[in-house]
Amino acid sequence: MKIVLFPIIVRLKSDNNDNDAIEQIDEDIAVTQSQVNFICPITQMEMKKPVRNKVCGHSYEQDAILKIIQTRKQQKKKVRCPKIGCSHDDVKESDLVQDEALKRAIDSQNKQSWSTL
């Protein structure tokens, strides 16, 4: 099952005559969308050291995916991408790269969250 969130557009009357309306994305939905992207599909927790799979493009917590790869390698079995719905069925350590952009986005959101407390 895939959940798709659509932003709700709210139209507000403008105080001045220059604009008839201002469009604003509902903040609750925007926050929900960004937080979902920061959650590791393995640990179900916010990622601290995200790595991206070069083959399918999904990101995971580095320690979690490496542990799965190591365990399955000992069992002489392939690792399927843990992201629900992904068909990539042979994840290798060499497929993983540090996801610096995602790390910066997570750090930025956390910094903003702390500054609003």
Automatic annotation (TrEMBL):
It is found in: Nucleus. GO terms for biological process: double-strand break repair via homologous recombination; protein sumoylation. It holds the Pfam family zf-Nse. Coiled coil: none annotated. It comes from the Eukaryota. The keyword Transmembrane helix does not apply. InterPro entries: Nse2(Mms21), Znf_MIZ, Znf_RING/FYVE/PHD. The keyword ATP-binding does not apply. Pathway: Protein modification; protein sumoylation. One of its GO terms (molecular function) is ligase activity. Residues 25-111 form the SP-RING-type domain. One of its GO terms (cellular component) is Smc5-Smc6 complex. Keywords: Ligase, Metal-binding, Nucleus, Transferase, Ubl conjugation pathway, Zinc, Zinc-finger. PROSITE patterns: ZF_SP_RING (PS51044). Belongs to the NSE2 family. This is E3 SUMO-protein ligase NSE2. It comes from Aythya fuligula (Tufted duck).
